[in-house]
Specification:
6 helices; 97 residues; 56% helix
Length: 97
């Protein structure tokens, strides 16, 4: 069994576990991507479990309360830790060689 299966979850699995449509989950993970730690496994995009499920449920709840995307960003900024992907610069890639 691969270790990442226990800690990572796909969009489809998030959709099934939350009861929120796949397209809505995909939209949430894109609109609020800094709050969804993720990793590529081949062509599949995987998210940290259970944080991804909790964040999708929270975003869904906030939309149902009538909040705008901007307001939800402000709320999540106070509640969650943002994740920023950093790619090495050209100079850093040369140093690794």
């Amino acid at each position: 069994m691969r270790w990442w299966r226990e800690i990572m979850i796909s969009l489809k699995e998030i959709s099934i576990k939350t009861g929120i449509s796949y397209t809505t989950v995909a939209r949430y993970t894109k609109a609020f991507e800094i709050y969804f730690p993720r990793q590529r496994a081949g062509r599949k995009l995987l998210f940290l479990n259970p944080e991804a499920i909790e964040t999708v449920q929270r975003v869904n709840e906030l939309y149902k309360q009538g909040n705008t995307t901007e307001q939800i960003h402000e709320i999540l900024q106070k509640e969650k830790t943002a994740t920023i992907d950093v790619k090495p610069s050209h100079d850093e890639k040369q140093l690794e060689v």
